[in-house]
């Protein structure tokens, strides 16, 4: 996505302009600060609540850490560039920025995809999830997701840095993906559209599975009530015992399923609001050549960054329900 951070230099060193705090830039700065504070605060609160810390917490804590790293390392450079209308911080700062903007930014995407996979696992195979989803497995899956993002994205980043990188003063700080269009399309599908599609499919699957189980439990409850009402009078004590057992059986799993449904519902809503517009815009450009304005890009990328605020709020809202 860094290709579109184009700020053409119009000023000589002795004509360096004053900072231009536009409303969108002020909002972007506020979102950055709010994201850092929320991710640090909610992450610390979650880790200091022993009853809430589970193997699933590995994905949440990783998500908070990646949000803080991105907001504290990449966003300030982006704001500094937009303040003056061009890239004035030098070549190595540009390489640093491109790495975080193009590669590290995929960390939250991969962790959201892993959250979706873990929810499918928890609902489809609850016994297996309980027994096999350990801290080691969660850490290993997180490392694999992060490694996958590097395997796909780092080659393009390195090739651009070695062969295609353009002077920042004339063309701004960006990856020159126009000469690597086929690779850019593949990267967009593999690292941006596929995780988003996985989250949507996971939401549909988990919601449908919970709905089917709820219908089966309701039917089973009616059947048990009918049997209890037709028992002979001298079987009252037996009926009470059977009713207690049936209530225990029926209520055993819904709480866990509500946890899975809640976390996926919040995730699906947030990514639809924050990530889908940006992904749709870049797909339209890369695959169909549909251009977009600078204002559209700024607004869409502001929405993209707001996901870093939604992530801790999502946990805060469902803190009492997601520990499994």
Commentary on this structure:
By secondary structure, the chain is mostly helical. It has one domain (18-208, 267-317): Rhodopsin 7-helix transmembrane proteins (Rhopdopsin 7-helix transmembrane proteins, Up-down Bundle). It is built from 13 helices and no strands. It has helices at residues 23-47, 57-73, 75-84, 91-104, 106-124, 126-132, 135-164, 168-171, 181-229, 236-250, 254-274, 276-288, 294-317. The longest helix has 49 residues, at 181-229. The two termini are 36 Å apart.
Task: Outline the fold blueprint.
Blueprint lengths: L22 H25 L9 H17 L1 H10 L6 H14 L1 H19 L1 H7 L2 H30 L3 H4 L9 H49 L6 H15 L3 H21 L1 H13 L5 H24 L7
Unreliable sequence segments: 1-13, 233-255
- Round the mean pLDDT to the nearest integer and report it: 80
> Using DSSP, what is the number of strands?
0
Radius of gyration: 25 Å
| Helical stretch tally | 13
Please tell me what the overall shape is.
elongated
| CATH domain fold name | Rhopdopsin 7-helix transmembrane proteins
**SSE string, helices as H and strands as E:** HHHHHHHHHHHHH
Any idea how many domains? Answer: 1
CATH superfamily: Rhodopsin 7-helix transmembrane proteins
